[in-house]
Here is the input.
Amino acid sequence: MTWENPTNEELRRILVTAKTIAVVGLSNNSERTSYQIAKIMQREGYRIIPVNPTVQEVLGEQAYPSLAEVPEPIDIINVFRRPEFLPEVAKDAAQTNCKIFWAQQGIVNEDAYHYLKQRDFTVIMDLCIKVVHAVLLK
Here is the structure.
């Protein structure tokens, strides 16, 4: 079985109800896509939690080395890591109470998808959260 994204209605519901987005791989370099997307989502009213072991703070928020170390509830896990790292990130995600795993545009890993689906996650892959937000919520 291959992976499949939720419907637009479900994506819209996720974005409307979410308040906190943990961004895995968020860079503190303003030239990087992860930074630009997170900044826009922050401006749209979401709380951004950076997850990156190489930074202390991004966009005015404390960074954490892993998802398991984030001390507060997460509504969406948004991933900016290469596809080969997704199974590792999926295992980290399974240690949280969050059930929404969103891999950015161009990022797909079927092993991670199936691992997460077996753990009752809603999994989104190969979609930009900013673009989906702009299309479905504006």
